[in-house]
Design goal:
Layout lengths: L7 H9 L4 H21 L6 H43 L9 E7 L2 E7 L1 H9 L2 E6 L2 E6 H10 L4 E3 L26
Antiparallel strand pairs: 1-2, 3-4, 3-5
Helix pairs in contact: 3-5
């Protein structure tokens, strides 16, 4: 009986005792049958190992795409936050430590910034707004606050609608002015 021709891997497996000659013959016979079937009938034999390997490869590609998308989104958020910070810091209006307190609501908590009287009036009349940065709050002109709001609406904490000094004609309390010295 002649010994079957072995490829180097089969020879190593036989030498190490991980397989037997009978198993090698059985694998070669199965391979010959599949090749003959494929040649004669044009039928392609589905290899489960190749199929599962291809599915695993496709799943890995999909996971990689998702991770890349998440990484890209995080980078875009970081760049957007840097843009907002730069715009706010370049256009900020100075706060005064011993100025008048302007109180506002942020995250269901009352916060206060101390500003000059003119800046307080600008905040009330909608000519200025308050922007939240990671280290605190900055006061910026209304146009800048709108630009920041277009990039990230959550960054703008206070931006009142621009009011006009002319009272509405149908306002029943138009004749009653609020005293200037009334502070809350």
């Amino acid at each position: 009986m002649k010994k079957p021709q072995l490829n180097p891997l089969q020879a190593q497996l036989l030498k190490s005792g991980l397989t037997s000659e009978a198993k090698v013959k059985q694998v070669k016979a199965e391979k010959r049958k599949q090749d003959k079937l494929q040649r004669n009938n044009g039928v392609e034999i589905v290899d489960d190992i190749k199929l599962s390997a291809e599915q695993a490869r496709q799943q890995q590609i999909e996971r990689d795409r998702e991770l890349n998308r998440q990484r890209k989104q995080a980078e875009e958020q970081k760049a957007l936050a840097a843009q907002i910070k730069q715009i706010a810091l370049l256009n900020r209006i100075a706060q005064e430590a011993n100025g008048i307190a302007y109180q506002f609501n942020h995250d269901n908590k009352v916060k206060a910034v101390y500003v000059a009287d003119k800046v307080r009036e600008a905040l009330i009349n909608g000519r200025a707004g308050i922007v939240k940065l990671e280290q605190g709050y900055e006061i910026v002109p209304a146009e800048i606050a709108r630009k920041i709001e277009a990039r990230d609406a959550d960054s703008v904490v206070v931006l009142n609608q621009a009011t006009q000094d002319v009272a509405a004609a149908d306002d029943p309390y138009a004749d009653f002015r609020i005293p200037d010295d009334l502070m809350w």
